[in-house]
Amino acid sequence: MPLTRDRMIGHDTERLAFRFTMLNGSDIVECQISDAAMDELAGTRGTESMARQAQFVALREGVEGVASEMFDRMTVVKGRVIRIFTKHVQKSPPSPAERIAAGAETDVDNSASLRLIVETRPASARQ
């Protein structure tokens, strides 16, 4: 069952992550995304701490989608925090058809499309 949107907590300057919560039915699930992962999603680097909330709002749907997918692949443990890092978010180059449609030269990669990936572990590795 996918998680549903709850509330934003805010940027944690000690952990360099943005904290938010989602709901699994009526249960609150704590989540956070690292600054580096948010910058990767946004296609930028070094976003200032005071701009993190606006960045999260702009990326919220995608971030929450990754958190929900990660939650669905984990063993449910009360109190577990869903932590999203850059390894869960990856840029991939656009396909040749996408580059042509965008008017880019086919041999030059001028932009990168985002693809979200979720780390999975085999059931034998879960505890």
Question: What labels describe this entry?
Answer:
127 residues; four-stranded mixed beta sheet; globular; alpha+beta; Double Stranded RNA Binding Domain; 3 helices
Question: What this model shows, in words?
Answer:
With 127 residues, this protein is an alpha+beta fold. The protein has one domain (4-125): Shew3726-like (Double Stranded RNA Binding Domain, 2-Layer Sandwich), CATH 3.30.160. It has three helices and six strands. Strands 1-2-3-4 form a four-stranded mixed sheet. A two-stranded antiparallel ribbon has the order 5-6. β1 (4-12) and β2 form a beta hairpin. It is globular. It starts with a strand and ends in an 11-residue tail after the last strand. Residues 108-120 have low confidence and may be disordered.
**Largest sheet, strands/sense/barrel:** 4 strands, mixed
Q: Count of DSSP E strands?
A: 6
- The CATH architecture category equals 2-Layer Sandwich
Which spans of ≥5 residues are poorly predicted at pLDDT below 50? Answer: 108-120
Helix content estimate: 25-40%
| Structural class based on helices, strands and sheet pairing | alpha+beta
